[in-house]
Amino acid sequence: MNNVLVLGGTGFVGRATCAELVERHGGGGTTIAVPTRRLAHGHTVRYLPTVELVEADVVRDPGALPRLVAGRDAVVNLIAVLHGDEARFRTLHVELPRRLAEACRAAGVRRVVHVSALGVGPNAPSLYLRSKTEGEAVLTGSGLDVTVLRPSVIFGADDRFLNLFASLQAVFPLMPLAGADARFQPVWVQDVAQAIVHCLERRDTIGRVYECVGPHVYTLADLVRLAGRHAGHERPVLPLPGALASLQARLMELAPGEPMMSRDNLLSMQVPNVATGEVPGLEALGITPAALEAVAPTYLGGAAGRARLGPLRTRAHRDS
């Protein structure tokens, strides 16, 4: 595994994955190629040793993937979106994996680690989950050496989940909340990054699916309260009934930029975002998942809390 292509390497999980690859293999001659539409977007991984930023648009340029895949030992696919219409979901979650599989077969690159999502299934209620289901099927049926990871919601210092709820509670005195009873089993981004690297290292993971979850299950309301509490301004949560929840999501969709929540998100939350137990988890990869309560205070609680993150990172590598 001397030459790895990480699609989505400048994103939240991608940055952690690149750092983990450097931590474990940076001194062994491993090259980590990270495509980005604009080199300026790669500032978060630019200075990691052995990381090579490549300016390329893998979505819009049909020749990008064949060029990028050629000569690689393995590919990690992290490209995904939470919001969009059916066309956007299909483009990124189905057609991109299809083109990736074709490029890998043409270049003779067999090893692929693909990050999907909990809750996938052909009868899933949301466009997001159905497209992720189809994307999985495209890769697992490609004849390549594929490993699939299905994480729950992922948290960490740069997440757009707990940080969002913490920042909202710094402004508003009350938290009207759609999907308050939805269930999640959040997993630390460092544990997901470790899982990806372990799968690259272990051939016994080929053809397997792993659920990436933390040790505890929470409702969305629980997570909102936890974010506010550790950020120092917990607010009361007001659960919204179905019609009001849908209206709130619709209004958020109309706001400029990436919405905080969409109606498709609400449909996804109808499926518990927790481990099914039908496939192995992080423990099967030798990883003891970190508890949310141990990590969240290190970044929601300000600089003093962040200083406590070092021992957790040490524990993570010790467990690997």
Identify low-pLDDT runs: 303-320
Mean pLDDT: 91
Order of neighbouring strands in the sheet with most strands: 3-2-1-4-5-6-11
Helix/strand-derived category reads: alpha/beta
CATH architecture of the domain at 3-154 and 187-213 and 274-290 and 308-319: 3-Layer(aba) Sandwich
CATH topology of the domain at 3-154 and 187-213 and 274-290 and 308-319: Rossmann fold
CATH superfamily of the domain at 3-154 and 187-213 and 274-290 and 308-319: NAD(P)-binding Rossmann-like Domain
Proportion of residues in helical segments: 40-55%
Q: Could you tell me the strand content as a percent range? A: 15-25%
Count of helix runs: 12
Largest sheet, in brief, is:
7 strands, parallel
Straight-line distance between termini: 18 Å
Total count of strands: 13
Order of helices and strands: EHEEHEHEHEEHEEEHEEHEHHHHH
Quaternary state of the chains: single chain
- The backbone outline, from C-alpha atoms, is globular
The CATH class of the domain at 3-154 and 187-213 and 274-290 and 308-319 is identified as Alpha Beta
